[in-house]
Specification:
The structure is a homotrimer. By secondary structure, chain A is an all-alpha fold. Chain A has one domain: A middle domain of Talin 1 (Up-down Bundle). Chain A is 76% helix and 1% strand. Chain A has a two-stranded antiparallel ribbon with strand order 1-2. In chain A, helix 9 packs antiparallel against helix 10 and helix 11 runs antiparallel to helix 12. Chain A is globular. The relative contact order of chain A is 0.21. Chains A and B meet through helix 6 and helix 7 of A and helix 11 and helix 12 of B.
């Protein structure tokens, strides 16, 4: 079993039984929130590792596809749980938060951590440019419905949902095309970016074991997400926080913890290409894959989700996309650029903290 | 005559008599709209070719100036027709649509078409950077009056018109300076961009013939534009579309068709510099030359045109300028970048479709 | 004394006694405004020179720090005078105007002046990229409170002030980090940018003399600023201008005059790195040092200053930051890029002129 548990974060697995115990005992929701959040962190990491091991048993093409699609499974599961509860604002806040967290906090911390060791770190400029452009495209997908909502509020909810659905389809198609680009027609640009099981310095798991671990972990994440989402409202109330702040900042931190530790580790090994790929790729998946899938899924639940984010969320994502684009455009990073990303995150977090419900 | 008719699009010329016949017969406005639109497409192409032939008879300086100034004569004629009818919203929508169509659809389609044949295509980075910066300047010229309108609505129409006129003058001066830059002081940067009659693989027409064709074609475009503009309102009503959608999407497609086919052709010949120059140059002419000229002309008609575009138009142009800037900044393109531009266009078109009148 | 007076601007010193005489004689406030404004121009230049001489007597580290911190002392003194008068709108307008003036007018004029002599001028791309990114960070610091104000206006003044204070702290920390970056960890990037006393072609002043001049000049600027600020309101009224226009355009021109002449001079000597460093560095100091310091100082005066700028100010700064970022990103400049910056400044000035109070 030593091959399943490889990170010091795995000690947090102890929170799985604790979270369940708290729930059963109808303990303080704050405890349930904290325990389930702590439990998801190592599970999200294991999900990533299990996916990587699984991919070593399938062809490179399918493998990359699996990797790319399961990369944010934890976020997707959390969001689905919130969606089922009808907490649309929390769903959208967790998407926003996950994007912000990845491109500002994860990437910023990576650049700081790497930049303290190396004067400057290089990464593939073409791949970075494509990432920035796709981020901007994703931001456009957020801006348009929000702008529509504020300039044509009288069009009614039905039309806004129809438009959201169509824009979700465009985003989904762009995601598919971006996979075609990065996995097939321009694969070589991303050559240095795959970090498979071997990078983790271990023998790949067997196929069955990979699938078994994936199944167990996914189920556990689903259970923990149920508890987490159920505890958001009373927790926010108790801490005097808004649900949006909890979704944008706290839940997103939980969902991104695995990417965070991996990206920072890679940056410290001077593999900035990987760190950038993880942070930006993860954001892109949230915006171009998870968000559309949630819109589609919402129709199954009978409560159509629209893509109309709050003005502040839209502005925050747009700002972040531009800052990352500016910082990444030269294909180099240093600690100060990382500090700037973290600084922007701090200012946004301050504003989200003070924003009313 | 074979030298005048060179494109398969020329078969659409048959719609000239048809459009007139429909108008005389007071036929369904939908038919008039469609026929006059189809007729303008080849005429706009011929206008461009005639201009190029004419320029081979004058000095390089005057020739480039002619080329640059007549390049969007079709759009200008259509807009003047709408202006005379007092359809200010349609005028502005056709400007917006022409800019969006050129930098998103024409450039995007060119990048896709070229990118399917070539893994990556290069274009002059300095010229592209100048183009992006000028586009941003043009966007600023749209943003400022709109923002003024929404933050100081109480200042009244007279002041908004005065401000629009002054901003139009600044834009017009910037256009003049940009010609000075590209045709004189930094001509060499654009060396690869001129595509004159010889590129079309034919002998230049005589001077008289060029002028004659120009005169006839311009007159025909003016007549067709009258019919087109007169049919916009009933057509929009009949199709359940808003006039803005018709202006931004349909009329703009008609006016841009010639640029579209030329740019795609150039991209497929791996002359991405030319394709970029056509798409961005055309947008810049619309914003920095056609728009100011329309403002000036509106004073002759006694109904001053302001430059206050709707928030959605301003946002759409600004978004597009940034996306194109991001995509073009590295001086390279590939099919995915083209697909992104088309994707942004699709999302904007969806929103314009649903926007109320 | 010939070493203190080195610039033809120094003849303007004659306005010091004149301004005082006008004030004592209770002359037309327009005269007081004009005279004190003219007096500040050479004083700001002398302040800069005295600082440079002083730094030749301390270690390089402390020297650079002094240089960086005292660089905008004139603006700070003017703003403090306005702050003490409770003219919060004027304080903020002068900050906005100083940023716009530096990155659009000073940099634009430098690029034009240099570009008329040299076809293209290069500057350090990494340093320029860092400058652009920091400018964007500063813009974010303006955008967030304004956006908060407009989407959550009901939160009340107390919360807006608390948020402004926290954001001011973040900006201040980022300024400190940027000094650490440019003066210590990545000093070599800015190697060509220091222009010390020797650049002025003279022997450094003695330590005592430097301090004495600094003290006298600072006192004189403070006195003149009192007169200037006191005359803003009646002057604006008399000229039919708003206080915001006077703050953004006129007062800022006065505060920036010294940077202006130095930067243009450097550009004409093909030292574009220096010109860029002066213009952008000065803007960054205003946004990341002067603005936070004013917020902190306002608590001493018992009238807390918030960072909520008007939508037009926020938009103007954001637009300018993007235009400069686009123009500077390739590490090259030419006269047309300079003309664009001036063009954007002209359009913004037109709008500010028409904006209501």
């Amino acid at each position: 079993m030593k091959r399943i548990f490889t990170s010091w974060l795995d000690v947090l697995l102890v929170f799985i039984p604790l979270a369940i115990a708290f729930e059963v005992a109808k303990a303080d929701p704050l405890l349930i929130f904290a325990a389930s959040a702590c439990a998801i962190i190592p599970l999200a990491g294991m999900l990533g590792r299990a996916t990587e091991h699984l991919t070593s048993h399938v062809g490179a093409g399918v493998g990359s596809l699996l990797n790319a699609s399961l990369g944010n499974a934890a976020e997707l599961i959390i969001a689905l749980a919130a969606l089922r509860e009808g907490l649309h604002d929390v769903v959208k806040a967790s998407l926003t938060g996950s994007i912000l967290g990845n491109i500002l906090l994860v990437l910023g911390a990576s650049m700081v951590a790497g930049g303290l060791k190396y004067e400057r770190q290089k990464f593939n400029q073409t791949a970075a440019g494509m990432g920035s452009s796709l981020l901007l495209l994703a931001a456009v997908g957020l801006i348009i419905p929000a702008l529509f909502h504020f300039t044509a509020a009288d069009r009614g909810v039905a039309i806004e949902r129809e438009m959201s659905l169509e824009i979700a389809i465009v985003l989904f198609v762009m995601y598919g095309l971006s996979l075609l680009f990065s996995l097939r027609t321009h694969r070589h640009l991303y050559a240095g970016e795959s970090h498979d099981a071997e990078d983790l310095g271990e023998q790949p798991w067997g196929f069955r074991m990979s699938v078994a671990v994936l199944t167990v972990v996914t189920t556990l994440i689903a259970v923990m997400s149920e508890l987490l989402v159920g505890a958001i409202e009373p927790t926010a109330h108790k801490l005097g926080l808004t649900q949006v702040f909890v979704g944008v900042i706290l839940v997103a931190l939980v969902g991104n913890a695995a990417e965070h530790s991996t990206a920072v580790l890679m940056a410290m090994k001077n593999k900035m290409d990987l760190a950038y790929g993880i942070a930006v790729g993860s954001s892109l998946q949230i915006a171009l894959l998870v968000a559309p899938v949630l819109v589609f899924a919402s129709y199954l639940f009978g409560t159509p989700l629209d893509l109309i984010f709050t003005p502040f969320e839209v502005a925050a994502v747009t700002i972040s996309v531009f800052v990352v684009g500016f910082v990444a455009i030269d294909g180099e990073s240093n600690w100060m650029e990382g500090a700037m990303l973290v600084g922007v995150y701090a200012m946004l977090a301050i504003a989200f903290y003070f924003l009313p419900a």
